[in-house]
Automatic annotation (TrEMBL):
This is EAL domain-containing protein. The lineage of its organism: Bacteria, Pseudomonadati, Pseudomonadota, Betaproteobacteria, Burkholderiales. It comes from Duganella flavida. Residues 23-277 form the EAL domain.
Length: 279
């Protein structure tokens, strides 16, 4: 086997160092960023594949750092998870999303469900169910108006505890959605063992659905399986009319992606919803 040359090794080390430094810089900038009001949420529409009606909205976190400028969640969420700041940040997201939903009560958005992303750390926090319950009460929301998106990683981390927490959340009436389905540690047993009601098919499969027979078959199989387990199905990353048509024909209930709408501000979402009334 060919050994990595000294040059390659150095490039690798430099990249590692840059990544570590990047993480440290982000970590430093994250401290105080909540108090400084540097975070905000944008909202992405999820529509009924059949009628086009706006059904759910996913809240996505944005950070405009005073030190670093806009930082993408793919960069700062992992750092926030490593440092534990994600708990405080996740609590802020929960409250902010519920408050926004509360202000939509008397609007065209009054019967949408709001989805928020929840990390493993939050779910492991003993006060989490109470936190969710209080956020609902404070903002006068019905529990079915809130859905929590979890990744498969969350499920395996501390399976017994997670199962108990999810059972409590379901008893409360909150929806549980499995995010990025198909990318992780997918095991069929998760789908029955945990109290889920929605599967989100990852963008990686949706992306190739028109041109790759393999992706097409895979998505078809996931949808069939979801149907037989009584789960709702959402396709992520729908970027073309062709993808939307195929997914609808396969029986995928909901669509999310740039073809429908980008993540947008609350005002823009209201305008989007206005156009969809009666559809
Ligand atoms: P995710 O939960 O899978 O969110 C979907 C991501 O795909 C979002 O990226 C969204 O902007 C993007 N997206 C949506 N439709 C399309 C499309 O048609 N094409 C393409 N190319 N991309 C599309 P974003 O907002 O950058 O978020 C990235 C990830 O950061 C999220 O992935 C989620 O894992 C994490 N994240 C975002 N907000 C939060 C949060 O409040 N809490 C936690 N724990 N994680 C969050
Ligand atoms: Ca998500
Ligand atoms: Ca996702
Ligand atoms: Ca993702």
């Amino acid at each position: 086997a060919k050994k990595a040359g000294r040059g390659e090794q150095r490039v690798f080390n430099d990249a590692m160092n840059a990544a570590a430094k990047d993480g440290l810089v982000i970590d430093g900038a994250l401290r105080g960023a909540i108090a400084a009001g540097e975070f905000y949420l944008v909202y992405q529409a999820i529509t009924n594949s059949h009628t086009g009606k706006l059904t759910k909205v996913e809240a996505l976190l944005r950070w405009n750092s005073s030190l670093l400028g806009p930082v993408s969640p793919d960069r700062f969420i992992p750092v926030a998870e490593d440092s534990g700041i994600i708990i405080e940040l996740g609590t802020w997201v929960l409250e902010q999303a519920c408050r926004q939903m509360g202000t939509w009560k008397q609007s065209v958005l009054d019967d949408v469900t709001i989805s928020i992303n929840v990390s493993a750390w939050q779910l492991a926090d003993p006060g989490f169910v109470e936190l969710v319950s209080q956020a609902l009460i404070r903002n006068r929301l019905a529990p079915h108006q809130l859905e929590l998106e979890l990744t498969e990683r969350v499920l395996i981390e501390d399976a017994a505890n997670v199962q108990a927490v999810l059972a409590q959340l379901r008893a409360l009436g909150v929806g549980i959605s499995l995010d990025d389905f198909g990318t992780g540690y997918s095991s069929l047993s998760y789908l029955t063992q945990f109290h889920l009601n929605t599967l989100k098919i990852d963008r990686a499969f949706v992306m190739d659905i028109e041109h790759s027979e393999r992706s097409n078959n895979l998505v078809h199989a996931i949808i069939a399986m979801g149907h037989s387990l009584g789960l709702q199905l959402v396709a992520e990353g729908v970027e073309t009319a062709g993808q939307a048509a195929i997914l609808e024909k396969m029986g995928c209930h909901y669509l999310q992606g740039y073809h429908i709408a980008r993540p947008i501000s609350p005002d823009d979402l209201l305008r989007f919803a206005d156009l969809r009334v009666g559809q």
